[in-house]
Design brief:
cytoplasm, alpha/beta, 14 helices
């Protein structure tokens, strides 16, 4: 089994680790202009919102480790931080950027949500301690010269400064001259340290100094290495992305083309969901030896939300002020199939209206609990479990929004429609269904339970 890592909070909206869906740290290698940085950040945010990927924008104000002294380094710290601050405030995304010297850490920490330690500097004690002292999350790139298990000493330095907001980043290991190789077992080794591991997919295909006075690389290999790392089970992907990488200031040969990113990330999400379902620990007292979340559950009670699950979340008002909701008939039949298997069924909703009551009566369900907010859904489920003499590990629940989180995190089998909010999709082990709310997602969930019911 892949080790469980800490969950690190990047800001109020974005977390990484704990075997949640991967977080993306991405953007152009260097801030070449404010407009270009904004264009890339905006497009990446659109893609990540569409795919429900937690997103951190990355770009560097200074590239201090260029192959040639004449190579462009960036727009400088003052201008660069101003650009990052503007992107952060305008697009509402966290940002990450490199620090190269101790004195940079405090001013950079005033803007950046994550401070990044370049690979060549990962053993610089003073730089690590200065970054740690800011209290910010620190993404530490493993040097090309280090073994994965040697990162324990770097972690110890961070811990000695009282900062455990640590990300460990793999970016390839020197393999002869002008070449790197990625040891996938090293990702497993680093995760054993208990902190989230980020895979730097684009720097891993570099050929350092391979073009004589500049670094070479092969961006065509990035998707393949990304898939391999996701198959191992990682917490984040780092990728440098440019609208015209062949004319980028730095690292052009290994940066991804912006136009290719949605396709690559769509594939990455599919693989990540598959692997996380296989590797996440089982809640309750179930055995972790089996591989499918469905196969290792014996469900005795199914509970469902209404708005956004049994309906599409829309509310239809008449001219008299009355409102209506549209339900999916297939969901109702799915619930009946469950009842035939001896599984009790019910609804727990924040709403309190006659529409929910009439739907409950129409379907002849066992339980209806309305008006449950601020943790009330979990408490209502516990009361039903007590009445049925079962545990929460024997309960399945499907929800779509943040008011469902507490219950989703506690039940034995959690599920959500494909258009659920991203916070719900990050619940460990949750089954992300193919159908949207109101379009048969509850029927899809009931059929999965019936198919795998023990």
């Amino acid at each position: 089994m892949i080790a469980q890592t800490k969950i690190i909070r990047i800001n109020s909206d974005v977390t990484i680790g704990g075997n949640q869906p991967f977080t993306l740290l991405a953007g152009p290698c260097a801030i070449e202009s404010e407009q270009m940085a904004f264009d890339v950040a905006g497009r990446l945010k659109e893609i990540c919102d569409k795919l429900s990927i937690p997103f951190v924008f990355k770009s560097s104000f200074d590239k201090a480790n260029r192959t040639s002294a004449s190579a462009p380094r960036g727009i400088g710290m003052e201008k660069g931080l101003a650009v990052l601050q503007n992107i952060k405030q305008t697009l509402h995304v966290p940002v990450v950027t490199d620090v190269h010297e101790t004195w940079q850490c405090n001013p950079v920490a005033e803007v950046a949500d994550i401070l990044q330690i370049p690979a060549f500097l990962c053993r610089q004690t003073d730089l690590l301690l200065a970054a740690a002292a800011t209290g910010k999350v620190v993404n530490i790139k493993k040097g090309q010269f280090l073994a994965p298990w040697d990162m324990k000493n770097i972690v110890a330095k961070m811990q000695s400064a009282g900062n455990e907001n640590i990300l460990l980043c793999e970016r390839g290991t020197s393999f002869g001259y002008n070449n790197l190789v990625v040891d996938m077992s090293g990702l497993v080794e680093m995760r054993q340290l208990g902190y989230p591991v980020v895979f730097d997919a684009t720097h891993s295909v570099q050929k350092p100094g391979g073009n004589g006075s500049s670094t070479g690389g092969n961006r065509e290999m990035v998707p393949y290495l990304m898939r391999a790392a996701l198959a191992v089970g990682i917490d984040g992907i780092f990728a440098e992305i440019h609208p015209d990488p062949d004319h980028a200031w730095s690292d052009g040969p290994n940066q991804l083309r912006l136009e290719d990113v949605e396709r690559i990330l769509t594939e990455a999400c599919e693989l990540d969901r598959l692997i996380k379902k296989l590797e996440l620990p089982v809640k309750g007292n179930m055995s972790a030896s089996t591989t499918s979340p469905m196969e290792r559950k014996r469900i005795k009670l199914l509970l469902s939300d209404i708005d956004g699950v049994m309906t599409d979340g829309g509310m239809y008002y008449t001219s008299r002020g009355d409102f209506m909701k549209k339900f999916n008939a297939h969901d109702g039949m799915g619930l009946q199939l469950l009842r035939q298997k001896g599984v009790k069924t019910g609804i727990i909703t924040s709403e309190d209206n006659d529409i929910a009551r009439r739907r409950f009566e129409k379907l002849h369900l066992d339980y209806l609990v309305q008006g449950q907010r601020d943790g009330g859904k979990l408490e209502a489920a516990k009361q039903i479990c007590e009445k049925e003499h079962i545990s929460l590990s024997e309960v399945a629940y499907i929800g779509d929004d943040v008011n469902c989180l507490q219950l989703l995190q506690q039940v034995g089998l959690a599920a959500c429609p494909s258009d659920a909010v991203w916070q719900v999709k990050q619940v460990p082990g949750i089954v992300q269904l193919k159908q949207k709310g109101g379009q048969g997602c509850l029927r899809e969930f009931t059929e999965l339970i019936v198919k795998n019911h023990i």
